[in-house]
Every structure is written in C-alpha cells, then in structure tokens.
Amino acid sequence: MAPSFSDIVEEARLSARALLDYGDSFFNPTVRLGVTGLSRAGKTVFITALIHGLTRGGRFPVFEPYASGRIAGARLAPQPDDAVPRFDYENHVRTLIEQRHWPNSTTDISELRLVIDYQRQNGADRTLTIDIVDYPGEWLLDLPLLNRSFEQWSAESLALSREGPRATLAAPWHEHLKTLHPQSRENEQATLAAAKLFTDYLRACRDERFAMSLLPPGRFLMPGNLASSPALTFAPLDVPIDGAAPDGSLWAMMRRRYEAYKDVVVRPFFRDHFARLDRQIVLVDALAAFNAGPEALHDLEAALAGILDCFRIGRSTILSSLFRPRIDRILFAATKADHLHHSSHDRLEAVLRRAVAKAADRAEYAGAAIDVVALAAVRATREAMVARGREKLPSILGTPAPGETANGDTFDGETEVATFPGDLPADPEELFKGGFRGLSSMPSDSADFRFLRFRPPLLERTGKDEPALPHIRLDRALQFLIGDRLQ
Ligand SMILES: Nc1nc2c(ncn2[C@@H]2O[C@H](COP(=O)(O)OP(=O)(O)O)[C@@H](O)[C@H]2O)c(=O)[nH]1
Ligand SMILES: [Mg+2]
What we know:
Elements: H1 5-27, E1 30-37, H2 43-56, H3 64-67, E2 71-77, H4 89-98, E3 110-119, E4 125-134, H5 137-140, H6 150-161, H7 166-178, H8 188-206, H9 218-221, H10 250-272, E5 279-284, H11 286-292, H12 294-312, E6 329-334, H13 345-362, E7 369-374, E8 382-388, E9 391-398, E10 403-404, E11 410-411, E12 417-419, H14 429-433, H15 474-482
Parallel strand pairs: 1-4, 1-5, 5-6, 6-7
Antiparallel strand pairs: 2-3, 3-4, 8-9, 9-12, 10-11
The protein binds guanosine-5'-diphosphate and magnesium ion.
C-alpha cells in the first residue's frame, strides 16, 4: 500500500520526536517502560509494588543488580511529560498498606519517573532513569486498526461476533444491523443506536462470566474525555470489503468516523506514547480467563496475537523506513499468582507461554525478545497444609474483602479463610481443549474460589521502617525488564 499523506506527516513527526528523545537519553540514560494490560489486569498494583520495592528496600533476590548491592538507591523525580497525568503513587501506597484496600481503578494513561543510582559491574557510578508509562491495554489493541479499512474492520468484527458465546451477546446489535441500509442517506439517529448496541455488546463480552479480551475499538469501553464525540459514534456495517461508499450515505458517514477515530485517537497514541517505549510488560489476568472457560482462553490468545501485531506495525507496515519501534524486550506476565498454590505457579506460566507461542505463530512474529512469567506484584495470601477429613491439602489462606460475593458468601473483612484452589493441569493443552472445568470445581470449605477477592496483606512493622510488600516473582520480572541496563 502506498503511504497516504497523513502517514507521511506522521512519519516526519515521529522522526522529530525520536531525535529529541535520543538527545535526552544520550546525556541521561533513560528506559521508557510501558506497563499495559486490560482493565483490572493489575497495572496499578504492579507499578505501585515495583516502586515501593525499589525505593523502600523490597526483597528481590533474583534482581541481580539489586541483590548484589550495586543499587545505591532509587528515588522519584518529577514526571517529565507535561500533558500526561502523574501516576498517583503516594495515594496508591497509602491505600494498599495503611488501609489494606486495593487502589481505585484508573482508566487513563499515567506516568512516573524513577531514578536509580547504581554502580556498574566495573565499579563506575551511574544513574539510570526509568519512565514508567501505565496505559490501558484496550488502547494497544486499537493499533491493528491502523492497517484496516472500515470495510475490513466491519467484516472482521462481524465474523467475530458470530462465534461462540459472542453470538448470543451480539443478538440485539445484529437485529438492529439488519434494519440498516448502508447505501441509504446518512442518519445520525441510526448511527447513535448502532454505536450504542455495538458498545453494549462489547461490554457484555467483557463481563467476568465471559472474560473476553479482544474488543476493539478500545475507547468504546474506555472513552476517557472523548465520550459521545462523533469519533466514537460509529459501528460496523455489513458491507463488501472492496466496495465503495456512495457520497452522503450511511456507509460513508460510518467510514468517515472510523477514519476520524484513527486520526484523533489511535495515531496520536501510537506517536506520543507507544512508539517511544523501550521495554514493555503486558499483564494478563489469565486466571479470569481460565474460570470463564476455553472460549475466553482462545479469545485471550487472539488478543495476544493482536498485541504482538502491534510490535510489528512500524517495522513493516504503516511507517516504513524512518521509524522502527524501539521496544526490544516484551514480558508477558500472568498476574495474581497468589491465588494459586506455589505448586501451580510454573503451570500458570506454562499456559501463558503456550498462549503467547500460539499467538506469535499466528502473528508471524519476529522481533523483540519475549519472556513469560507468573507473578503476584502484591502477595495477599499465605500457604499452609490444611486438614480436610483425613487428608491434608495444600491450601492458601487470605482475608476476603468484606461484603457479599456474587454467589452469596458473606465476609467480615477481618477473618482469614482457607481455600483449596486446586492444581492447574500439568498439560496446558487441557485448558485450551476445555477439559478443565475451572478452579471453582475444586473442593472448597467455605467459598466459591472464583469470587474471592483477598484484601492486601497485613504487614508487620519492625522499628520505624516501612515493611516490604511480599510478592511472587516480581524480581524475575525486573531482571528481565531492566537488569541488562544496570550492568
Ligand atoms: N491477590 C492479588 N490481587 C491483585 C494483584 N494485582 C491486582 N489484584 C487485583 O486486581 C484488581 C485490579 O488491579 P489494578 O492494578 O487496579 O488493575 P489495572 O486496572 O490493570 O490497573 C485489584 O483491585 C486487586 O483486586 C495481586 O498481585 N494479588
Ligand atoms: Mg490502573
């Protein structure tokens, strides 16, 4: 495809930006670390725990520069990008440690600068600046739209909406779609109705019972400050992929707005944020997908393929020669591993590894180095062997959040309960084939495991120091993401 005028302008902007960033990092080595994942995957908790650990003396035996004592200290510095909200670290830590609540969820991009003073392996003193950028995974999954026309996107969205559990959820939208004539005159009311029904369908797919991942356009579910603007008011139409929209038609109107979405939302995100990242961690709530069943897992795999596609964009497609994405390491992390006994952590990792490998095949991925980890940024549970009848079962102990869960269990928010989450299957394929019926099918004393939300851990204070937050494999994630930049 020949580059369009807007692609050329975009390319010029990108190279100007890259030059500026390069000048900065020449004098002041900087890593821009992207932290992404779908809503509730664990981004806020991950970043809070990471900063707390590095600035307040966490326990990170596998993070070599830290464990070997070469890191002299880490501190926060003013957030450098004027137009991006600052990550609200202080509030999140207070909520997590003092109130023992999880931080409020966020729906926008935010950023924070961390400065690490360290000693190189050859003894020289150095400083590494890390700009941590927290952005919704929903926005990342929009990038593939840059390579798709309105007609292609419509066809793909429609095909997907006819598969598996999506078909039922899409029924009201499909009914409305039948009443639309793409060739007829443009019609604001019909467009509004279509956009609303299409958004309702996306929202239903995201519900935890289905836990679908692949739901672009991302701003339909996370509109930010663009709610109800025309760029967010469109929907797929049943039109031929190579057809041409007649002037003044409904089709032309939808198409124009789809292009506006790319111009107003997707391209600026790509240019101002994504294209500037050096390292990326993608957080995945794989447990939610397991509990929703094999369809959710296949959907997750499709979303991972979409994400890997993003790292190719720019290498080959939209912005050809001048610009290369800088990301050279991507870590996929299954979060909330503290909901499983440690005997299942490797299995959780294996399932994600399998899903990422399949996705990489599908996206014909070749590029940045990829690794996979199962982690808990904040470990909310302990492990114990608990007697059940005459058996002793490996179980986890945690304090469920107060209130009533979806299946009617009530908790006071103070009492610890033991659960038996059961083991993940040794063979990841079983999960994809649907032989596994979810962790809830395991014996459980008090509660349906799927609906439990544990409170953050109670920390014991010794002396004046703020205690370290317990975690699972957060240090392994750090080692992969920035270990090599601290050699
Ligand atoms: N047990 C446990 N729960 C977590 C962890 N990380 C996140 N969560 C849960 O997942 C929810 C969403 O996390 P959050 O970081 O706000 O997700 P975000 O939307 O990606 O920023 C939190 O409110 C917690 O209930 C973790 O490490 N352990
Ligand atoms: Mg968040």
